[in-house]
């Protein structure tokens, strides 16, 4: 969308056309353009840079245009800690107990993406109910799945 606002030559034509068509219809509905003149006004607003200037003012009023956070890359695992977690879950004695890695070293992970699932079997309760929890990348708390 920013490439359309900045009127760069490599901006997708279909996106520009769709944005201008919608903006033109809104200008006509709001009474800012005569019926049938909305598209021309929208294209003029885009081409003159007025739309970009207005967008940037709105962004500044809301704290500025920010770069989205980049994904982090998994460098390595601490196998001793993972083995300890699996042992605490009950492996290998309990049939349902396991630790399932959702990612591998070298994978990029986004905020809140599950890193691993830990399955454990509760003690007591006739059927031995299973419990599962996931540890997610920073930004989301542990997420129980039961």
TrEMBL record:
| Organism superkingdom | Bacteria
What UniProt keywords are attached to this protein's entry?
Answer: Glycosyltransferase, Membrane, Transferase, Transmembrane, Transmembrane helix
Q: Which residues form the Pyrimidine nucleoside phosphorylase C-terminal domain?
A: 73-133
Asked if the Swiss-Prot or TrEMBL record annotates the protein with the keyword Cell membrane, the reply is no
Q: Which segments cross the bilayer?
A: 20-44
Name assigned to this protein: Pyrimidine nucleoside phosphorylase C-terminal domain-containing protein
